[in-house]
Amino acid sequence: MATNPILEIENLSLATSAGKSLVTNVNFSLGKGESLGLVGESGSGKSLTLRSILGLLPRGVEQVGGAIRSDVRSAMIFQDPRGALDPLCPVVRQLAEVVYYRQNVSRKASRTIALELLEMLGLPDSLKQKDRYPSQLSGGQCQRIVIAMALACKPGILLCDEPTTALDVTVQKQIIDTITRLQQELGFAMVFVTHNLAIASTMCSTLCVMKEGQIVERGESLSLLQNPQHSYTQMLIHSVLPLPELERGAGV
Ligand SMILES: Nc1ncnc2c1ncn2[C@@H]1O[C@H](COP(=O)(O)OP(=O)(O)OP(=O)(O)O)[C@@H](O)[C@H]1O
User: Which range of residues forms the domain containing residue 108?
Assistant: First the structure.
C-alpha cells in the first residue's frame, strides 16, 4: 500500500449486465508521482480496471463491488491515437478546445497554451503555423497530440492504456521517453497498462500481474521479473521471444 495514496482501489469487481464476472476483487493504491503497471494477457481485465478509475466503463459493464477513492484528477491516453481524435477537426483546435474547457481560460489563452503543449511534446513548428487534420499527421504525432490533450487536463494521475501498441518500435521508444520525461517534469502518477513486460518494468516501479480478472502477483518490477512466484507470471516472462544470438565474427 502506498503511504498517502492519491488513488485507492479496494476490492473492485466488474461484471456484465448479464452477471458475467469480468474483474474480481482488485486492490491497489498509488502515491503521488508513483507508477504502477498492469500486465497480463489479452482479456485479463487490465483496460476495464483502468477505465473504471475514470468512470468510463463501456456499455454493458458495471461495477458490482468495491470502491475507488481518489482526490486528484485523472486523464487517459488510449491505445489508438487516431481513434481518439476527431478526424474532421484540426488538431490544434481540438487541443485548444480541451484547454478551454478544462482550464477555464479565454479562447485566446487556450490557443496559446495549446501551442505551448505542442512544444512540450516535441511536435514540429509546422504544426503551429498551419493547422493540420489528424490524417495529415503520423501515428506518433497523433499520439503526442493525444498525450498533450491528457496533460491539458492537468492530471494528478495519467492512465495509459497501451499507448504505444499501435505505433512502430522506433516511435514506441520515443513516446515512452517522452512520457518518462513529462512525468519527471510534471510529477503526475501513472497507471500503465501494457502487454510488454520490458516497457512495464522500464516505466513502473510496481507491477501487478492480472489473469482472468484478478491480480495473481504483485511486486517491485525488477524483483518480480527476476524472481516470479506465480506460474502465470513465469509463463508470461517465458513467452517473450529472446533475440537470436548473433554469430560472432559473421560477415555482414
Ligand atoms: N463492453 C463489454 N461487454 C462485455 N464484455 C466485455 C466488454 N468489454 C470488455 N469485456 C470483457 O471483459 C474482459 C476484460 O477485458 P479488458 O478489455 O479489460 O481486457 P484487457 O486485459 O485490457 O485485454 P487487452 O490487452 O486485449 O486490451 C474480456 O473478457 C472482455 O471480453
Answer: 81-154
Number of domains in the chain: 1
The residue to mutate among 48, 162, 164, having the most atoms of ligand 1 within 8 angstroms of its beta carbon, is 48
Q: Specify whether the CB–CB gap between 225 and 190 falls below 8 A.
A: no
Indicate whether residue 251 lines ligand 1 (CB < 6 A): no
pTM score above 0.80:
yes
- Yes or no: say if 178 and 92 are a contact pair by the CB < 8 Å rule: no
Residue 125 lies in a domain: yes
> How far, in Å, from the CA of 23 to the mean position of ligand 1?
9
Distance of CA 147 to the CA centre of its chain: 10
What are 32-84's pLDDT values in tens digits? 999 999 999 889 999 999 999 999 999 999 999 999 999 999 999 988 888 88
CA distance 167 to 109: 32
112 belongs to a structural domain: yes
User: Does residue 219 fall inside a structural domain?
Assistant: no
